[in-house]
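Retro notes, item 3 of 5
We never archived the inputs for the 2-phosphoglycolic acid complex last cycle. Fixing that now. Sequence and ligand:
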Amino acid sequence: MRKLIAGNWKMNGLRADGTALARALAARHLDAGPDCELLICPPATLLAEIAPLLAGTGIALGGQDCHPDAVGAHTGDISAAMLKDAGCAYVILGHSERRREHHETDALVRRKVGAARATELIPIVCVGETAAERDAGRTLAVIGAQLSGSLPALAGADPLVIAYEPVWAIGTGRTPKQHEIADVHAFIRSELAKGTPRAATVRILYGGSVNAKNAQDILPIANVDGALVGGASLDAQAFWTIALAAGD
Ligand code: PGA
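Structure as it came back at the time:
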């Protein structure tokens, strides 16, 4: 399976720097695309402006969240259909920053996954343990519960991406040891296999302090089908270096 390198810009980027970054990536991709799939998830305000910059490049566009309902009185929220309409193919759901800052529960994430699927957006469902949970030896139990709580029935053929992002590794410069990543990804694969015969086709991304230096160590790990990159995705050269490491 080709790896997927996804950039999560989070709440970064005004029109000038966001479009400049997208243009820089588009130019590189047209010049010589890496041997992986690329996705960028800019802030919602930039999606419609960036979509035409990516047209024809092969770089996909994604949102960072959506509301579980299709339409209605939800001030400040964005529906899956709005993301699709702006040019998105993917949406990140259940990121730990949303779980923490917006009190998102597994049940809510599950409804959002349903909304994404109804709109034919590919959900990227994030799971991951806190430092305290890892220290207590509860990593796999926590991730198992997040998976079963956040995913609707998996029987259909709808595409799905999982991102394993240890909360303590996000934005900290710290990453798990390679065997720790391998253990969690193998566990996620086996949990998915309980619910669907096509578990082998679900991409499982690693996220949390992936950068241009460590990508070549992380991406070859078994069951790591790509990366969800935060901070390093804001730098065209760093993101590109990660993408090139995915094709090795
Ligand atoms: P980071 O963020 O790469 O800055 O650690 C990753 C993420 O939160 O998706």
